[in-house]
User: Fold Enolase C-terminal domain-like protein from Halospeciosus flavus.
Amino acid sequence: MRISEVEIHEFDYEVEDVGTVGGNWVYDPDSTLEPPGFVLTVRTADGTEGHYRGFAFTPPMIAQIEMVAEEHLLGRDPLERKGIWKDLWRALRHTDHLGVGPIDVALWDLAGNHYGESVSKLLGGYRDSLPAYASTMFVDDAGGLDTPTAFADYAETCLERGYDGFKFHGHPESNPDFDVAICEALAERVGDEMDLMIDSSSLYETYADALDVGRAIDDLDFFWYEDPLYDGGVSATMVKKLVSALDTPVLGLEHVRTGPYGTTTHLVEEAADLVRTSAHLDGGITGLMKTANTVESFGLDVELLLGGPAHVHAMSAIRNTNYFEHGLLHPESRWILDQGYEGNPEALGDDGRMHVPDGPGLGVDVDWEFVEARQTGHTRFEN
Assistant:
């Protein structure tokens, strides 16, 4: 079996009542965003296919896929995923490897379709459902999640829906005092019933701000403190200093594109308590599992960045992970989530858990009617 075609369908999503502040997603009742997306298809001569639906960093991902499609994919055995991953990681070493994830996920989907088994089964998955936390959009100034009380009210709603945890993204214009006020409101309202997290998204401009927020949530028993440092956590020295100063676990490496290799450096330096990784950005399911195993060997946990079917399947086979991130959520608007798929594969079950699809491959179907209706580009590489 050989790869005979690599196909990219580009399209745009439609997200109502959402805008951006400094590139961060916020509620805006006067705006409708149409961010770019794509579906990557890897196909063999016998018609076996694998797909990846892209929803973030679409332009660089597509550019990198196009860079490697002919030389590193066409004519290859698609079941030799680790060999292909090895070659792609080297080929894209100068460009942050953003093209590796989509290709690798598509190859896992293809393998599942070939064998008639779910990706979870191929990975040795042993869980059919996962605990989930609600992950909100950023603080807005438009009458949505714009006050500590509004966040506390929404956390209560999410608790009633069955979420075990609640995470908010801080003020997009960097307002540490306001973020602390939200943390205090959440702890008072639902702190005894939900795990609470704050994602500062590398917005705090000084180490002093990051330290002040961390010390405040130390007293509030937060589950984790995510990416507070402005450099994105690249400096292991700086993160180590923050980790040693706080009791709350620091979750990092979301913005560091070095895969399992850079992760090892941070862990040796004790510059992380918890590690972010992603099938989308860190080398697909293969790269994600490499990182998860590396972190497990240090006795620590990994948390997967945002959702998607690939993360559901991967989490089913990872011991050292706590929550599926369900987002970005808001009481007045709905993010991309299931757009581009048939049905609602990323819908929370009645039990408040995310259930693992049991069909072949990723167990989800591309909504080709949606993709074609909003198509903006189409590229095919053929052998």
Summary: Residues 122-355 form a domain with the TIM Barrel fold (CATH 3.20.20.120).
